[in-house]
Hints:
The protein is an all-alpha fold. It has a domain at about 55-95. It has helices at about 35-50, 55-60, 70-75, 85-95. Helix 2 (about 55-60) crosses helix 4. It is elongated and about 75 Å long. The mean pLDDT is about 85.
Amino acid sequence: MPRSKKATPKRKSAPTGKNRTVTVRKPQASKSTSAGKSRAAGIKLFNLAGRPSGEDFIKVYGPAGPKMTWEQRAEAGVPAEKFQAALASAMRQAK
């Protein structure tokens, strides 16, 4: 049985230099909300703390550690800047 060839649609030719239109995209203004700013601040502190896991929070702050905000963690005595040192200390004490 011979194979039948499917009809392929013809492609349109590329526009020439005279007919081509140029579209210029305007940069979009970023919409900043208070929630977005708070989230960005939290992510910045998370990265500053060394991107800890949930288990790391539990080792340093206790069972409520993952649910706490960075402000609450700072009030508990360990700010984001000193998190890695506190985690190392907690790891040494656990052994």
